[in-house]
Amino acid sequence: MQKPGSKSQGKARGYLLLELILAMVFISVALVGLLNGFSGAIRGQTANDDHVQGILFLENKINDLELSGSFQEGVLEGACSENESFSWETATSKTNVSCLYRVEVTVSWSSGSEKAVVYLREKKDKS
Prior knowledge:
CATH superfamily: GSPII I/J protein-like
CATH architecture: 2-Layer Sandwich
Number of strands: 4
Distance between the termini: 119 Å
Radius of gyration: 33 Å
Number of domains: 1
Shape: rod-shaped
Number of helices: 2
CATH class: Alpha Beta
Structural class: alpha+beta
């Protein structure tokens, strides 16, 4: 039997419940912050993907207009056939130079839009 206050009795001491609770709180706060950072990065990547896709639709619409070669003054709009959440709008007007048109193309989506202004020349048939 050991006497009270002997040296071996102090070595058997464990962690207090308060210390364990504080450690769990610190780990929980760190985990929540880490998960919040990951979700923010994913949201940012999704917005970036939409922006890149919007720019590609914009360039595609400009190329379609350029290939058509004939323009009518006014505003046209529609939905992108590849992705219904994207819509486009073109505003065409004549300039002071004959056969030259100012074409403003806008592609919009749920979280933003992208606009470009180009000047396109009307193709004349040589018949």
